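=== RUN LOG ===
request id: a7f3
mode: sequence -> structure
chains: 1
length: 99
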Amino acid sequence: MNNDVNEKNLSDFNWDSPEFLKLREVAQTQLREEKRLFQSLKDARESQGLSLEEVAFRMGITGNRLEMIESGNIDPTLGEVGRYATCINHKVSFKIKEA
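=== RESULT ===
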């Protein structure tokens, strides 16, 4: 029953509305920023000669999970982002501001 409601709502949705297009643009910008963040962390890790497995061990996660984080295939927790930075002698700060 709930799926029927969702399908109806999606079929009636205006994918070309200015509101949706703005949300899509914001989401794409966020994805690009996240990709840059993880590329920066990965570059710093590699420049220090640290293996993915070594940093993953330091973080308390598997190498596979860290690889997925670096490649953007999964969203890490804020704690994982902070631990990653700490493990490579970096610091990540977050700023919350009104959009």
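=== NOTES ===
The chain is about 70% helix and 0% strand.
The two ends are 36 Å apart (CA to CA).
=== END ===
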